[in-house]
Amino acid sequence: MSITKPVFKRKIFLAVSFAVTVLVSFADGAFEYSGRAAREEGMGGSYVALADDASAVFHNPAGLSNISIPELLTGYGGLFMGLDDGSLTKSLITAVYPFSSGIDFLDEEGAGVGWSRLSAAGLYREDAFVMGYGARVTDSLRAGIGLKILSVGYGEDEYTKINPVFSSGYGSTAFSADLGIIYNLLDTFAFGFGVYNINSPDIGLKHENRVPRYVKGGTNLSLPHGNIGMQLEYGGGDTTFSIGAEHRVLNSSFLARGGLGLGSRQYRTASLGVSYSIGRYNIDYSFLYPLTGIVGTLGTHKINAAFYFGDKYVPEPEPEVIEAVVLDELPDEVAPRVISEADIRRSRDLTSEAEEMIDRGNFVEAFRTLEQAKNIWGDNRAAENLLGDLGPVVNIYDSVVERDKKTSLVARAVRAYFDGRGREALNRIRYASQLWPDDVSLQQLRSVIERKFSQRASEEKLIPGLNLVEQRLQEILEAIYERRWVRAVSLCEEVLDLEPDNVLALKRMGSAYFGMGNRQKATEIWERALEIDPNDKELLEYLGISEAEPVPDIVSQREFESAVNYYNRIVEAGAGDDVRIQVLERIITTYRDTEINISSLEEELNRLRERR
Is the pLDDT of residue 11 over 60? Predict the structure, then answer.
């Protein structure tokens, strides 16, 4: 046994080393395979110009600026499965957070971190740690940078102990950097380019072993239901060409993918993939099969899970074909047209007319009018900007007429969207999408608005189990408890913007003004609430008080029951112990000096503290 064991391990080591060598040759060099996720694999690797999920931190940091909500991506895969000697696995985790630095020439910024590991039967590993940053620097150009720590390690056994290569250790670490850009044309076509391992770092143990520098260039065509991409890659003396596509099926819940890869040294691969999206979660699976080279393998299989801390963008449906406005029948060859002052005035007048159409909810008519304005005067930036904002809306709604609560929220959300009033636009469309969660058009419009106001959207933490009005009412109550009167009034105004006849919001707004000492304003608001609900006993008590009487009792039994109900709902929604403790402490502090029995809440608080 003592004789055969080293021989057996040596066999495995050699076999795995061969497999790693083959993998590296197929991947055009060490670490090129780092971070490759299932979605990219399913499209044959044609990703440099698309780069719109968290794996962009590895493959084109410029794509980090494409991400509008925080995202976490995890993955695992088996490479060239079915080989008898050893196994190759791939692990991946990345996270991206969109933000705004406030720098004038930068927009839609995103920062990401990632870790990727390639492991060969415990005898060899490649670890890549990356930090990336991307931003939109002009209307069409996105750029990004990635800083990497690359590490290799070898397993220790009887064979490696006597091999002089490992005399100085079993691992090596080096630093590297990547640069990437994405240039967008006409909102549907993008060109991507990246340079990777710019300094070609040395990761050798005893002898020099440099990670090859390589470049990628590619294009991506965005279609209403998917993408088509092509990519050319060069590094380490090898060239690879890949082409892939993805198409959305089954009411946008599934994406199907396919791709091909061709390159030097007889590199040939075929790949397939599928995704399933549900709410804030997405699952990707890919299968890649080598058409040449390795034999006896079941191919490479990968699975990724993505988590979105916000609502993921849902692609718009097939856009309606809008007839172009034909101004003149022109011959094939004409002299350059001179734009007159009259043309410019006419174009501006049409833009103003289109703005009025948008206010009335006539989106298709406004779109046509803006196109006409642009055709008359190509440098009309106001019309161009409106077209850019209106395009995604027209793909969802031809027009919106205010007939009921839903259409009123939609129309007012769209008006705020065009006026640049982010908080109002977000509040209105989020509340509408919460009240009617099965309305696909509402969810799509919500994605459009959240992408435009991505920074503000990421700052708002929505509480599961509560709609926006319920959440705001609780926040108002907490502000009143803390005597933050101005914030309480501001939050009440947000509720009344969504529900003008919300009696509870009016009552709490009146209490806030009363707390500020403005009794006249408080009385006006309470009287308005009483017109809506003439039988409300608390309102009758508030309006019956004299100048000498104290502030109305805002900590009544009804408010206490509301607070307890709020606590129960966050528990049902899965809130952690820290959040539950914080809420309980606020409730207990508020009602400790009243006649309300809070002993059960105190017992719950002590139990949570002991458990923590």
Answer: no
Question: Within 10 Å of residue 266's Cβ, how many Cβ atoms?
Answer: 10
* pLDDT for the residue 413: 94
Task: Compute the average pLDDT of residues 42-67.
Answer: 89
Give the dihedral sign, CA 451/456/459/461. negative
Euclidean distance between CA atoms 235 and 248, whole angstroms: 33
Please provide the size of the chain in residues. Answer: 612
Amino acid at residue number 568: N
Mean pLDDT across the stretch 435-449?
92
Pick from 184, 210, 182, 183: nearest CA to 197? 210
Q: What is the pLDDT of residue 9?
A: 43
Q: Read off the pLDDT of each residue in 467-472 and give the average, rounded to a whole number.
A: 92
Which ranges of 463-554 does DSSP label H, i.e. alpha helix?
468-481, 485-498, 503-515, 519-532, 537-543
Confirm if 202 and 209 have CB atoms less than 8 A apart. Answer: yes
CA dist., res. 85 & res. 101, Å (int): 51
**Residue 287 and residue 271: Cα distance in Å, rounded?**
5
Q: What is the mean pLDDT of the segment spanning 418-432?
A: 93
Residue 580 has pLDDT above 90, yes or no: no
- At 607 the three-state DSSP class reads helix
Beta strands in 137-266 (DSSP E): 141-154, 171-185, 189-196, 214-223, 226-235, 238-249, 254-263
pTM given for the model: 0.51
Q: Where in the chain are all domains bearing CATH 2.40.160.60?
A: 4-308
Distance from the Cα of residue 583 to its chain's centroid: 29
Q: What is the pLDDT of the chain when averaged over all its residues?
A: 81
pLDDT of residue 24: 42
Place of tokens 């101004």: 327
Q: Which residues of 93-117 are buried (b: 16+ CB within 10 A; e: fewer)?
A: bbbbbbbeeeeeeebbbbbbebbbb
Architecture of domain 463-554 in this structure: Alpha Horseshoe (1.25)
Cα–Cα dist 127/122, whole Å: 13
The pLDDT of residue 595: 72
| Comma-separated ranges of CATH 1.25.40.10 domains in the chain | 463-554
Instruction: Examine the pLDDT at 41 and tell me if it is beyond 80.
Output: yes
**CA dist., res. 37 & res. 75, Å (int):** 7
The CATH superfamily label for domain 4-308 reads Outer membrane protein transport protein (OMPP1/FadL/TodX) (2.40.160.60)
The residues, ordered by sequence, that sit 6+ positions from 561 with a Cβ below 8 Å of its Cβ are none
